[in-house]
Model the fold of this input.
Amino acid sequence: MKKLFLLDAYALIFRAYFAFARNPRVTSKGLDTSAVYGFLLALLDVIEKEKPSHLAVVFDIGGSEVREQLFSEYKAHRDETPEGIKVAVPYIQKLLGAMRIPALGVPGYEADDVIGTLAHQAEKAGFEVFMMTPDKDFGQLVTDRVKMYKPSRGGEPAEVMGPAEVCEKWGIERVDQVIDILGLMGDAVDNIPGIAGVGEKTAAKLLAEYGTVENVLDNADQLKGALGEKVRQGKDLAIMSKKLATIITTVPVEFHEENFKVTEPNKEALLDIFSELEFRTIGKRILGED
Done:
């Protein structure tokens, strides 16, 4: 079985950076290499343990035109990216080049959209696909052949989520209801508003009865008391929030399997980067003792 891993670059880079927040890794010249080191560890872990035949790392380049036109506040409250991450990204891209791993991104679309599009194309081409990200929104894309792969953390093993696991986690019947749940409850991380005062449990309960955001809204008059009032008032926000939470799977990007194949790295280029970053142990792990 051909096995494709698609890595959500920034989700993994942020996670790596904050994992070392209390004890950052800094070179003798004062360069903070925490994010590069943590990202590379996660990447090696997957290559060694899961042995993917095909692999790509997907970056956000320039936001989401569709979502920003729909809601100017989308992701607007996010903090400034830490300097250590800004410094790390060019090194990570250099490392991926030396490892001959494609680094992708499509202007105007988020990494989620690019991953969703490639995952569907690869599934049709007979691949088993793993979307490597800690981001819960990806649950909407899961099928029997496309799974979420939440990287290991603090000694806990990696978690693989298929349709059954996603439905159990959210308390829903079908994976496409992930977007309905987010439409109702919102998502603070992405500044998706949802309906004020509706949380995850209430959203799951409403969907168990009505199935979709649209059906919930159509039946708002039957909802009693404060909840009915909230749903009636939040109608427009719920519809917009569902659109914001929907991952686009029609991005102009194509999956050509030969371009994603895992191959031998360019060892000389890697040696130069590892020397500059002072990655001795990890260098030996990839390049051997010499």
Observations:
- The first strand starts at residue 3 and ends at 8.
- The chain is about 45% helix and 10% strand.
- Residues 178 and 215 are 15 Å apart (CA to CA).
